[in-house]
Amino acid sequence: FTLRGVGMRYNGAAVLENVNLDLTGNRLVAVVGPNGAGKSTLLGILAGLRSGYLGECLYEGRSVKKWPRREFARRVSFVPQSLRLEFPFTAEQVVFMGRMPYGDGLFESDEDRAAVHEAMELTDTLAFRRRDFRSLSGGERQRVVLASALAQKPETLLLDEPTTFLDLKHQLSIYSILRSLCREGLQAIAATHDLNLASAFSDRVIVLHHGRVVVDSTPEQALTLQTLKEVFAVDACIAKGPEGRPWIVYGH
Predict the structure, then answer these.
(1) Are 92 and 100 in contact (CB under 8 A)?
(2) How sure is the predictor about 244, in pLDDT bands with cuts at 50, 70 and 90?
(3) Residue 115 has pLDDT above 90, yes or no
(4) Three-state secondary structure along the chain?
(5) How far apart are CA 23 and CA 29, in angstroms?
(6) Position 105 pLDDT exceeds 70
(7) b/e map 240-252, b = 16+ CB within 10 Å
(8) Handedness of CA 180, 24, 193, 198 (dihedral sign)
(9) 16: which strand partners?
């Protein structure tokens, strides 16, 4: 992705202003910032789900607005904060929906079935594959939605607060999966409130504040005491966490 001068306004109020970013390569990128910073709006623009923005958002040199939707969906997958379905689809059927950009008929191919099984295995959702999606807990639903996105076999995965409803085990598992997939060639861009998960797993951290990019660097350089104070309005100290990465200990 390439963003040049991207801005967005709602009811006259600026949500994003003059965002310029180059998002390329097989990396795990965390987008962080306080509520209202513009994280979800930014991901929505990248996913081609928002219109009316200023500037340019390009994917592989072509405006996101000009990509054929089916072709774009084979390359870019989006995981929303939550998904509601009114019909009695099983968890497995929801994951199969991720294969729609590849389908030419009503029947699943061997490739579809293999992709769905692999995605459900990765996200630890095979155990409830036959259950009604509506009956699942918030965390279980979120893992199924992620499995559906992974079943698309995208080049780029966009995630809006992917671990909001997950227990600690699955939070760590999902970010470990994302990091492994990035090492294999995927690009993942995740908006998150959890600064320690961003620090522990991401290669790059983009900090948004009042709709602007205020920091864009490594976790060590992005999540400093100054940034925590000025952007998040918290007092903290920074220790060493896994792999020597910053680990934020919040004050009172």
Answers:
(1) no
(2) confident
(3) yes
(4) CEEEEEEEEECCEEEEEEEEEECCCCCEEEEECCCCCCHHHHHHHHCCCCCCCEEEEEECCEEHHHCCHHHHHHHEEEECCCCCCCCCCEHHHHHHHHHHHHCCCCCCCHHHHHHHHHHHHHCCCHHHCCCEHHHCCHHHHHHHHHHHHHHCCCCEEEEECCCCCCCHHHHHHHHHHHHHHHHCCCEEEEECCCHHHHHHHCCEEEEEECCEEEEEECHHHHCCHHHHHHHHCCCEEEEECHHHCEEEEECC
(5) 8
(6) no
(7) eeeeebbbbeeee
(8) positive
(9) 8
Report the C-alpha gap between 226 and 96 in whole angstroms. Answer: 45
Cα–Cα distance, 136 to 120 (Å, whole number):
15
Structure token digits, residue 127? 């155990």
Tokens of 81: 């904060």
Give residue 186's pLDDT. 96
The two structure tokens encoding residue 12: 């006259």
> What are the backbone dihedrals phi and psi of residue 159, each rounded to the nearest 5 degrees, phi first?
-135, 125
Give the whole-angstrom CA distance, residue 91 versus residue 89: 7
What is the predicted pLDDT for the residue at 107? 67
Q: Structure tokens of 97?
A: 């929906």
What's CA 130's distance to the chain center, in Å? 26
CA-based nearest residue to 146, from 110, 177, 172: 177
Length of the chain: 252
CB within 8 Å of 144: residues ≥ 6 apart: 91, 94, 95, 120, 123, 125, 133, 136
Does the pLDDT at position 106 exceed 70? Answer: no
